[in-house]
Q: What sequence folds into this?
């Protein structure tokens, strides 16, 4: 009771009491929790925004192969204006995808399967004439076929083309051959008929034809070849060939060839003759005339 009297007197006198240690700790905890709540409240909208952005990200669509797509999937169903170069490109893509067909594709098949109704579908129209004159199209009375740049149509022609180009062929140079040309090139590589190397400069695969396997000779022929010994003496070789009715190249070479000497002969140095008319120092011509002319027989002699 006596200890509480000073504090009561201080409160009565208008002076605020000092907080205790427990009250100070409680206040610090409350301030910390309040500041943490503010941080959580500020971070909540960002988290909601990031989650909404993740939800907005679409997964990439898996593109179907060209032959598996319908006309609606390739062109849509809404008519629109398309320039003529795009129409030609779409028809070329269709012909290239159907290179495996042995017979030409008729114009009716192109109209029904390759192009939509808002393209130029008139036989003999502008699109038709552009296809007839295109270098990548082989047009005939029976229809149209795709013509590759190098005439590669199957695995056999691909291997022949690689052998005709020993310096190597880039993958993009043969990619227009037919639909599975690169798959066949990899198959040739797996079979050992071709090599496949990556060109770091052009960032493309390059294919090389492997050397062709040589057929071995029959065992009896190989045995005769290995047992045959040629004469080491040229005269005996010439005589053996003459006995068989054959002329040796050594015989003709021996008649025209000069004898070879192992001893090096020294060349005789010819004395140089002087002609005063050809001398550069014409002003010295008086020194070579008269009684003293005999002593000037050479430039080196004085």
A:
């Amino acid at each position: 009771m006596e200890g509480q009297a000073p504090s009561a007197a201080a409160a009565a006198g208008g002076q605020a009491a000092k907080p205790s240690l427990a009250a100070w700790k409680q206040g610090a905890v409350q301030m910390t929790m309040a500041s943490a709540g503010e941080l959580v409240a500020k971070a909540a909208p960002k988290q909601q925004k990031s989650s909404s952005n993740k939800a907005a990200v679409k997964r990439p669509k898996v593109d179907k192969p060209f032959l598996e797509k319908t006309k609606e999937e390739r062109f849509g169903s809404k008519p629109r204006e398309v320039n003529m170069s795009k129409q030609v490109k779409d028809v070329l893509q269709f012909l290239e995808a159907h290179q495996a067909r042995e017979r030409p594709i008729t114009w009716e098949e192109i109209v029904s399967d390759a192009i939509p109704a808002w393209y130029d579908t008139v036989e003999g129209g502008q699109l038709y004439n552009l296809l007839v004159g295109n270098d990548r199209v082989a047009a005939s009375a029976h229809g149209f076929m795709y013509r590759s740049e190098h005439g590669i149509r199957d695995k056999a022609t691909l291997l022949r083309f690689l052998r005709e180009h020993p310096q190597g062929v880039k993958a993009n140079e043969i990619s227009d051959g037919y639909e599975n040309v690169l798959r066949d090139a990899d198959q040739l590589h797996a079979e050992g008929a071709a090599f496949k190397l990556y060109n770091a400069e052009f960032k493309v695969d390059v294919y090389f034809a492997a050397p062709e396997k040589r057929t071995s000779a029959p065992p009896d022929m190989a045995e005769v070849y290995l047992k045959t010994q040629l004469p080491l003496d040229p005269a005996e070789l010439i005589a053996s060939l003459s006995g068989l009715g054959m002329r040796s190249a050594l015989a003709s070479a021996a008649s025209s060839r000069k004898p070879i000497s192992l001893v090096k002969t020294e060349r005789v140095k010819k004395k140089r003759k002087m002609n005063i008319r050809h001398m550069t120092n014409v002003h010295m011509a008086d020194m070579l005339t008269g009684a003293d002319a005999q002593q000037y027989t050479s430039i080196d002699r004085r």
Observations:
- Confidence is low (pLDDT under 50) at residues 1-14.
- Strands lie at 137-140, 143-146, 169-170, 194-199, 204-209.
- Residues 71 and 116 are 7 Å apart (CA to CA).
- The chain has twelve helices and five strands.
